[in-house]
Amino acid sequence: TNARTPLIAGNWKMNLDHNEAIHTVQKLAWALKDAQHDYNAVEATVLVPFTDIRSVQTLVDSDKLGITYGAQDLSAQVSGAYTGEISPVFLSRLGVKYVAVGHSERRQYHGEDDALVNAKTKNALAHDIAPIVCVGEPLEVRKAGDQVPFTLAQVDGAFADISAEDAVKVVVAYEPVWAIGTGEVATPADAQEVAQAIRARLAELYSQDVADAVRVLYGGSVKSSSIKELMNEADVDGALVGGASLDPEEFAKIVHYQD
Ligand code: PEP
């Protein structure tokens, strides 16, 4: 038993334009309404492309939908000569609640390292956006059995110089790289091993109270068929869902996993 509200976050990646976004969010809201979903019991959010945010905001606000929304990245800067970057100021003005930071695809294709992930995490927190910090090992590290030390080094990097007051607002997503987009979901025991280690590290870095407050998600090929077992694990507080979040009926089933 714990006081952490489960969070199911859909990561659309570079999919769905602003018109498709409206249809997808409408269908998701209808599916959750049909299921009489209690948003206070399980929070549902969608991390959408920047160009979708305004459309999603208008829909969520005008129809008073229970879901929230967020972005997939942000700048480490606040304003100025940073062509193509998106400021957390802009995001918070659009009602963004969450932002993914350091997703493995950004670490891999955009060279994001722990120092940049730390700077982006701080920038989100400074503008009242909850960072969803993504960590997790590649296949060769898992094969060597080093998933825990590898992932904890990323946790240390992300939380560097962040106060306890801010740390409780961070969400950590454990996403083993070999499980992302591969159809190969981690076993619940594998997810729990690393989620528990992350929480123990937060207790060392801060306190047991902070560790007990931070939500740790699992991500990597989650589907409606695998979510329930993952959520049974003591330290898994939700999921970051890529591919399966593009299908609103399937994503609604994942959000409403308790039934
Ligand atoms: C992700 O992009 O964070 C992810 C977990 O993707 P998928 O669910 O498709 O593996």
Automatic annotation (TrEMBL):
GO biological process assignments: gluconeogenesis; glyceraldehyde-3-phosphate biosynthetic process; glycerol catabolic process; glycolytic process
Gene3D superfamilies referenced in this protein's UniProt entry, alphabetically: Aldolase class I
Designated name of the protein: Triosephosphate isomerase
Protein localization: Cytoplasm
Annotated residues for binding of substrate: N11, W12, K13, G181, S221, G242, G243
Annotated Gene Ontology cellular component terms: cytosol
Pathway: Carbohydrate biosynthesis; gluconeogenesis; Carbohydrate degradation; glycolysis; D-glyceraldehyde 3-phosphate from glycerone phosphate: step 1/1
InterPro entries: Aldolase_TIM, TIM_sf, TrioseP_Isoase_bac/euk, Triosephosphate_isomerase, Triosephosphate_isomerase_AS
Family indicated by similarity: Belongs to the triosephosphate isomerase family.
Major localization class: cytoplasm
Keywords assigned by UniProt, alphabetized: Cytoplasm, Gluconeogenesis, Glycolysis, Isomerase
Function in brief: Involved in the gluconeogenesis. Catalyzes stereospecifically the conversion of dihydroxyacetone phosphate (DHAP) to D-glyceraldehyde-3-phosphate (G3P).
Description of how the protein assembles with itself and partners: Homodimer.
Catalytic activity: D-glyceraldehyde 3-phosphate = dihydroxyacetone phosphate
Organism from which the protein derives: Jonesia denitrificans (strain ATCC 14870 / DSM 20603 / BCRC 15368 / CIP 55.134 / JCM 11481 / NBRC 15587 / NCTC 10816 / Prevot 55134)
Entry annotation: catalytic residues: H103, E175
GO molecular function, one term: triose-phosphate isomerase activity
Iron-sulfur keyword on record: no
Listed EC numbers: 5.3.1.1
Top EC class for this record: isomerase
